[in-house]
Amino acid sequence: MGTHAHVLLGSGWLGDTYVNYGLGNFLWYHNFRPESGVLRVRIEDGDVVDDEWVPALIAPDGRPRPLTGVPADAAVAKWRAQRGCTGLSGNPRQR
User: Fold this and answer.
1) Which listed site, 6, 16, 32, 76, has its alpha carbon 20 to 30 Å from 26?
2) What does the DSSP assignment read for 69-83?
3) What is the C-alpha separation between 37 and 66, in angstroms, rounded?
4) pTM (2 decimals)?
5) Do 33 and 58 meet the contact criterion of CB atoms below 8 Å apart?
6) Cβ count near 37 (within 10 Å)
7) Domain-wise residue ranges, the chain
8) Do residues 67 and 76 touch, judged by C-beta distance below 8 A?
């Protein structure tokens, strides 16, 4: 898992390894609303077999607020699209 890139970057499978290049900031006190969220991975027999992005925006008080509805769907689609520029697969069976 990557960390401290301050921005969301691609996640997925590279060969038999699950890779995340950057989770951004989770708590951040600033005067704008950066993207944030929680990466959930499911592990079976020591292997990551599924992933899920739960998107949020950081509110002016610095705490993340989960997105719902159309904004959440758009944020998840954007997160999935980031796999393409990194060569990562969205499916562990397509390693």
Assistant:
1) 16
2) HHHHHHHHHHHHHTT
3) 7
4) 0.80
5) yes
6) 23
7) 11-89
8) no
